Amino acid sequence: MVGVKASGEGQAEAGRRFGKLLRKSRGQAGLSQQELAAAAMVSQSLISDIEQGKKGTRRDVVVRLDNALAARGALVDFWDAAFSGVGMTAYFREAAEAEQSASVIRDYSLGLVPGLFQVEQYVRAISRLSLPEASPEEIEQIVKARQLRQKVLGRSHPPTLILVLDEVVLRRRFRDPDVMRAQIEHLLELSCHPRTTLQIVPIDTEEHHGLGGSFTLMKVPGSGEFVYIESQRTGLSLKQPDVVASYERVFAELRGAALPVAASRLRMEEIRGSIT
Asked: Which residue among 153, 168, 192, 206 sits deepest, i.e. has the most Cβ atoms within 10 Å of its Cβ?
């Protein structure tokens, strides 16, 4: 979807979450504010203000802080997701920020490949279909936003990913057959990663628990777990323990209904081979 700038309140909340992440990263590195300030060549007062959510900062400063803390891009990726302002709807911003610091992401999709796993051709195709009046510049913003989010998968210690897809997602046809072919090839590559589990719910599964719609469960150290659900034009993050627990049960049921990992990989290969 085309990006919408977050409200002032949303930016302030993002600043508080970034400050919390900076404070946590500094603690893990065993540095005082003064030591970090010296290493990153900034003032100690700036470090203090950022950690308290009182002040924002520029991306180049975040890069220096990330390098000084050996944070492996965690701070930069969070900053990009929260403050870059490109190609991202305001309601999704909190979930996008959470992706950058999540330890576990569990994703179920009934209609489309989730954005975190979409290849560029796929992003362009679905964006043009859902936003026929979008300009080329707006489409480019959406592509860039997806790519920024996906940087988290390339870290040396990415989150644990458990992805469950309804088979209908992979059988979606596009005018250009290369779109889905490239997307399935990417999913096959992801499925071989040691920290990724990918399973397919067969298309002939009767009355399975995921027919109510797609959702994402994320576990964020220090913030607990929440579920994100999205419709055509809006999204919602839910943190109530009973709600999260109900989605966890649905996800467990879906994994039980899905093909095992090896069989899921074979199913993806079969579908890719059938694309003409």
From this structure: 153
Question: What is the Cα Rg of the chain in Å?
Answer: 20
- According to CATH, the topology of domain 1-85 is 434 Repressor (Amino-terminal Domain) (1.10.260)
Q: Where in the chain is the domain with CATH 3.30.870?
A: 90-274
d(CA 61, CA 71): 14
More confident residue, 125 or 88: 125
The answer as to CATH 3.30.420 being correct for domain 90-274 is no
Query: Across the beta sheet with 224-230, what order do the strands follow?
Result: 196-201, 160-166, 104-109, 215-220, 224-230, 235-238
pLDDT, one tens digit per residue, over 207-216 is 888 998 999 9
CA distances from 69 to 26, 38, 44, 45, 218 (A): 6, 12, 15, 17, 25
